[in-house]
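Complex 175.
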Amino acid sequence: MASEHRPERAESPAAVANSASPTVVERITHQDVPAVCGLFKKVWESETTGLPAELVKSWQPTPLEFTSWMEGVTYFAARRDGRVVGVVGCELEHGSCHLVDLVVDPEARRQGVASALLATALDWAKRSNAPEAWGEVLGRFHSAAALFAHLGFVECGVLHKHQWNEDVRLFERLL
Ligand SMILES: CC(C)(COP(=O)(O)OP(=O)(O)OC[C@H]1O[C@@H](n2cnc3c(N)ncnc32)[C@H](O)[C@@H]1OP(=O)(O)O)[C@@H](O)C(=O)NCCC(=O)NCCS
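Predicted structure with coenzyme A bound:
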């Protein structure tokens, strides 16, 4: 496995086909933290979630907060022309790979960016000997549910009114 300081790199053929500039997915380094935090802010400030403002704010970490999120979580960033356009985190929980904090720049959506990120995340999970990868989707986030289904994840459960009185849907893919 690549060391903490050597980013893993993969180009997504799907994304290459869909856009003028290729999408490159790499493991993030501490140098990427400001750009990653800027992306979380851009995404959650522009998204109309209908969720409490304090909650949506908690998904927009400061660089200091994000540095602590990075402990125990391996994050990958998707870049185009050097600009961060997507992020996903992977954490091993009881051997399984939990996918967290997935976001794509609103201007780069439906161009395969999340698919490229998750392909790299699943590859990382396989190489970490995880038997499966899974993610949680709040009931109102239909795009994320459609994305997981598109990528062959199976909806394996629902936690009723689990977070903020909202159902949380669980999606998993065996590796
Ligand atoms: C969900 C999200 C990450 C998808 O990113 P993306 O880069 O646009 O996804 P992709 O382009 O890889 O989509 C691949 C496929 O997923 C499905 N999909 C993705 N977004 C969709 C949408 N809004 N509606 C319906 N299907 C969608 C489609 O099947 C799509 O293939 P197609 O474009 O050929 O039809 C992005 O919309 C986002 O950041 N949303 C806000 C944050 C969020 O919900 N994060 C997830 C929290 S669990």
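Residues 19 and 55 are 33 Å apart (CA to CA).
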